[in-house]
Structures are given as C-alpha cells and as structure tokens.
Design goal:
The longest helix is centred in the N-terminal third of the chain and has 22 residues. The chain is built from 13 helices and 15 strands. Helix content is 36%, strand content 14%. The N terminus and C terminus are likely disordered. The protein is an alpha/beta fold.
Amino acid sequence: MNIRRVRAGLKGWGGVAAMAVVCALALAFVLLLPLTQSKGADGTGGQGVAHGSQARAEDDPCQDPQIKKAPEKQTLSPSGADGDTIKKIKAREGDKRKLIVGVDQNSYRWGYRNPNAGTSGELEGFDIDLVHRIAAEILGDPNAVLFKAIPTNQRIPALQEGRVDMVVRTMTINCTRLGQVAFSAPYFKTGQQVLAPKSSTIKGYDDTLAGKRICTAEGSTANTTLTEDQKAGKLPATAKIVDPVPNQLDCLVRLQLGEVDAVVTDGALAASQAAQDPTVQLKGDPFTTEYYGVAMNLKADDLVRRVNQILADYRKDTANGWQASYDKWLSATLDKDSAKSKPPTPAEYLRTS
C-alpha cells in the first residue's frame, strides 16, 4: 500500500478525519497482509516469511521492530512465473538479450578477474557462479549476462536508476537498504570482522582499537556499524574512522601502505583479502551476524520471487549448486565445513520466527 500516494490524494479532504481514514486503511492492510501470502513450490512461503514490507517500505523500515530484528527474513515467496520485469528482460533482442548484473571485479574468490585467464580476463568467483545460474534459469543460457563492475557505494543507485537488473556483490541485507531496494532470501551468512597486520597489537573489535585508524568502504554496513558503535560507546572514542573509500579493496591497499591500522569488513571478504596478502590476518571473532542477498529494484516483485526459487533449487543441487561453488572458491579461505556460512532456509525461519 503506497501511503505517500494516499496522503497526497487526500490533500483536498482536509482535517483530522482524512488522516484517520488513512491510518485505518494502513492498519487493515498490515493485519490482512500475512493472510495473503502464498506458499512457494517448496513450501517456503506463507505467514512469517513473505512479509511483503521489503518491497513496499516507503517510510523508514528500521522503525519496524520486526524488520530491524531480522531484515534477512523480509522477502517474497518463491515462484517460477514470469512477471512484467522478467518479460522485459526476455524481450531484449539480439546481443542485448542478457541479464544486466552489477558485480565486483576486485574481490578475490567472490567476483574478480582471473589474472591467469589470458587476454579474456573472465570474471570468476562465488558471486559470479550464482549470476551464471540465475541467467541459465531465466534466459536458458548461463553466459547470457552483461556484467557491470560497480563500486560499493554505487550498488543502490545502479538499481534505483535502472542501470542493472540486479546486484550480486556481497551485499548485506539490512533494514535501511530494504527501504531502497528489494532483496532475495539470503544466500550467505557472515559477520563483521577486523583485519590488521599480523604484527599489530590489535586483538579484535575491542579496546585495542583505541587510537587506531580504521578503514571502511563507503555505503558499507561496516561504516554504519562503526559510526553507531562509537556514538554508543561500544568503540573507543579515540579510534579514528577515516574517510570511507569507494571500494572495499581500497582499504587493503591503504593498510598495505601504512595509511590505516585496521580494516573492518565482512569476515568472508576479509578472509579472501588475507589470502591475497600473507602479512595480514583476521583479528578476533565476528562481532555481528549478517546475510548477503541478491538486490533488485523495489518494483521488481516477480524477479525477486524468481530469484528466490532459483536460490532454493541452487541450494538443493549438490553437484553444481551452492555447496559445489563454496568448495571451489571459499573453503580454502574460510572453513572446509560450510555450516557457518550457509544461511537458514525460509522453512527454518518458520520454526524460529
């Protein structure tokens, strides 16, 4: 329900009575919404999972305690149907009949150009595998993809401006972003962690960061978390959160140059950066729990549902799905056992909601 449009249309009504009608309509919508959700083919939809708010959040969704507590649960039930968004993608002609996807090209083992691939320099990694699977399911060709390298701080604008169909770029689902873009169900579980030189006295996300210069990427959850924690007294007041950089890899470069003392980012990304540079390491345990999702335009409900169906099937595919991709790209830098990285299924949400 578009509350802003309703409010605009009621300007001529005047007075408190009009707003009372708006509030009543909004309340009725919220109460009835869970009853309208249908289950997907794998039984993952229904009340408690497809809240509908992530694609309709026009006020601050962080004001909703349910969304703030578990933003990763705010998605739509899986479906294999073609809606308007998917039909437009399929209607592209010739060489333009491709899925346009925003990705990273600098995150080792996630989305990066293989230096050993010759002149082709093809993109590879865990996120890239997922993109190919989505393209295969929607367009019938895993290579029907136009990759667009997008900096961390351009992920949301690229979707809002229609420059890409989706972003698959280690993007954390949070309540603030749910008011800006739509997310699929989670496809990876991680948490914020500290990366610093092995010789550093920094031990983790604690008082050893006092007086230290910390690098984060602009528009990242790490930057938001550090800023909020410092205001709340959870991060030493003397810790210096330096001006954020456009891309996460820029933080590693600044660390290598001695311009900062530590990097805070997702542990999954930090582990890959540590694999690139043997002089740095993860310090301490993750201090948050976060989930990556495929991001899409707020109006692309049919695409969200289709991606959720693809993710459900991808997870079940033991030969060429999620687990096979994890084993290939991430087991060496994270853990041989993928249990800590595999997000709950929507069915599991039903048992914990």
